[in-house]
Every structure is written in C-alpha cells, then in structure tokens.
Amino acid sequence: MKAVQSLLPLSSLEPRKLKRTGYVPAFLGGGLLAGLVPIINMTVRPTMFTTQPGSPFHILMDANWQLMAQLNILLLVCGACILYHTEYEGNAIQKTETLPVTPFFLFLGKLGILILSCLLPLCLEAISLLLCCMHWFPDDAAVGMLLIKGIAFEFALMLPTAAAMLFISSICRNMWICLGTGVILVFMTSVLPADNTVMAMLPFVSPYRILHRLSHTQTFHMLAGCAGEIVLFCLLETIYLKIRRLS
Fold it and tell me: Model-level pTM?
C-alpha cells in the first residue's frame, strides 16, 4: 500500500515532464522505421523469401529481426536517457525529492514507463509483419498465433535491457555520456556470439534472439534469466542510491 501511494505522484508528474521532450515522437518514429524494414525487404526482393519453405512468419523474422531488434535497443537507450535527463536538467531531481517519493520508487516508475513504451514500436512492428504475411503469403492461416507468441517473447527479452539502460541513466547526470555509453554497448554487444547460452542472456544481446530458433528448455532459461536480470538491476539501483546518499 505504501509503495502504491509513493508511486501515485509519478502518474501525474511524468506525463507532464515527457510532453516537453521528444520521448513519444522518438518511440513512434523508431517503431515506424523498424516496421518499414520487412516491408522494404519484401518489396525489393520478394521472390527470395516467397520461394523459401517453412512458416512465412519465421522467414520474415529470420530475414529482418536482427535490424529491427537493434533499432528497438537504440530506442530503449534514447528513452532511458530522456527519462532521467528530465530529472537532472535544472536540478529538477531536487524538487522531486520534496515529494513523498523515494528515489527508488522514482526509478521503478520510470522503468514502468520505459517498459510500457516498448509496446508501441513492437505493436507497429507486429502490424508490419502481419501485413507482409497477408500480402505475400496469403495462404498461411497460422500466422496470427505465431506472431503473438513471437512478439510477446521479444517484449520479455527487451525488459532487462530497459532496466540496465535506466540504471546507467540514473548514474550519469550528463545525458550525452549516458547516450554515448548506451550506443557503444549496442554496437559492442551486437558482435557477441548469440549461439552462446550465457552471452545470449546478457542485456543488449538477448533481444536479438528469436523464439522459433530456441527449444522449450532454452526458452525457459531465457525468460528466467531475464526475470533475474531485472531484479539484479533493481538491487544495483538500491545499492547505488545508498552510496550516493552517503557521499
């Protein structure tokens, strides 16, 4: 009950803060850009994919998700930077501390906003993939359930990256340092071997994984690892806040 009461002030403050930024346009524009990837790919070279055997959704994901996932991760980096930049700009965080909101609940509130924001680009990308399947693979009737499962899995894999990037943003008062760190991590982790089980679970790497390429055991391990990583970054944030309070 106390946690809910602590988060209530954020429900009215955060939307007003984000109106002064490019937060929503960034996620909308990024989602549209990622959604164009499979459409452009299919328009330019349709026969390369329509002649392949197997599920059309799996074919589209194999051909396009690497770039789409990278755009999604970049959106998370930008979104996390914007969320904490609104606090550090003009020492607004000091004013926030006068409210009945602890710094950790501020972090949780922003994490909730960032997680919900992931749904916007993913929904746009799901619509794009569905339209591609309907236009170029009209005979496939099972695409709906595959798409729901696949996009839901990708949403779950994005959550540790959101928590990790928001943790970095809470540490860096300078938005450009935070943004640079995030971009470096995006491109450094994109070259890590995705077939390694441990490497594949790391934030900034896990969103590249695709559901139909994994066994049931691997899927369970991925989801369990993602849940553990979210808890880990929340614990790291509490430790950092205690250190900052003592310094």
Answer: 0.88
